[in-house]
C-alpha cells in the first residue's frame, strides 16, 4: 500500500490495525507524508465548505421564490402547490439530513464507534454473600437486563467508585442519555478508575445528540491525558474537524 492509498484508507476508516500503526508512524516521522496528509485534509474541508455554500444558495433561492409567489397571491395549480410543500418540507426538516449528506452523520458515527463496556470489576463466578447485591447487579448487567442492574446498583449502601460508571453504562443502553451523562461526569469528578472511559462515552453521547462541539471537547480531554481508545479518538476528532 502506497502513501496515497494509506491516506485515503484513513479518511474512509478502512485501515487494518497494522495499517493504522504504519499510518501513525509515518505521520509522526515522515514530514513529506504529513504534508501530503494535511493537504488532503484541507482539500476535503474546502470541498465540503463549497458544497455547503452551493446548497444553502439553492435553498435560499427556493424560499425566496415561494415567498414572492405567496405575496403576489398567484393562483397555482395543484401540482405547483405540491411542489411548494415539498420544498418547504425540505427547508424545514432537510437540515437534519443535510449534515449527513455533505458533512458527517453524527448518529452513524455514534453507532459505528459504540460498544457497551464489559464487566471487568466483578467476576460473577464469585459466590460470596458479602457482596450479594453487587453480584446480582453485575449478573443483570451481563445479561443485558439493564433496568434490573440499575435497581440493584441503587440498593448498594456503600458502593465502590466504579458503580457510577457501570450504572451510567446501563442508562446509556436504555437510551436515557441525560442520566448517563450525569453519572459519567460524576465519575470523572470523583477521580475513579474509569476517567478515560467516561470521556470516551461522553463524547459518543454528544455525538448521538448531534453536539459536535462538546463531543470534540471530550475527545481532546481524552487525548491530552489518557491512552484509552487513542487511535479511535484521533480518527473521530479528525472526522469532526
Automatic annotation (TrEMBL):
Classification lineage: Bacteria, Pseudomonadati, Bacteroidota, Flavobacteriia, Flavobacteriales
Species this protein is from: Bizionia paragorgiae
Record-given protein name: Tetratricopeptide repeat-containing protein
InterPro entries recorded: TPR-like_helical_dom_sf
Domain of life: Bacteria
Gene3D superfamilies membership: Tetratricopeptide repeat domain
Amino acid at each position: 500500500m502506497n502513501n496515497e492509498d494509506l491516506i485515503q484508507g484513513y479518511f474512509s476508516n478502512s485501515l487494518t490495525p497494522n495499517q493504522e500503526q504504519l499510518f501513525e508512524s509515518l505521520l509522526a516521522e515522515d514530514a513529506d507524508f504529513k504534508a501530503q496528509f494535511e493537504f488532503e485534509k484541507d482539500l476535503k474541508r474546502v470541498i465540503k465548505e463549497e458544497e455547503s455554500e452551493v446548497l444553502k444558495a439553492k435553498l435560499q433561492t427556493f424560499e425566496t421564490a415561494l415567498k414572492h409567489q405567496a405575496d403576489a397571491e398567484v393562483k397555482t395549480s395543484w401540482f405547483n402547490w405540491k411542489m411548494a410543500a415539498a420544498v418547504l418540507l425540505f427547508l424545514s426538516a432537510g437540515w437534519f439530513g443535510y449534515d449527513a449528506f455533505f458533512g458527517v452523520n453524527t448518529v452513524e458515527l455514534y453507532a459505528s464507534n459504540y460498544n457497551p463496556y464489559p464487566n471487568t470489576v466483578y467476576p460473577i463466578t464469585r459466590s460470596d454473600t458479602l457482596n450479594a447485591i453487587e453480584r446480582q447487579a453485575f449478573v443483570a448487567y451481563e445479561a443485558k437486563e439493564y433496568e434490573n442492574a440499575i435497581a440493584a446498583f441503587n440498593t448498594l449502601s456503600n458502593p465502590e467508585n466504579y458503580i457510577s460508571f457501570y450504572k451510567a453504562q446501563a442508562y446509556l443502553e436504555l437510551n436515557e442519555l441525560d442520566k448517563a451523562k450525569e453519572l459519567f461526569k460524576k465519575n470523572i469528578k470523583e477521580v475513579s478508575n474509569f476517567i478515560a472511559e467516561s470521556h470516551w462515552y461522553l463524547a459518543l453521547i454528544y455525538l448521538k445528540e448531534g453536539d459536535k462541539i462538546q463531543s470534540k471537547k471530550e475527545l481532546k480531554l481524552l487525548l491530552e491525558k489518557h491512552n484509552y481508545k487513542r487511535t479511535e479518538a484521533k480518527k473521530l476528532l479528525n472526522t469532526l474537524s
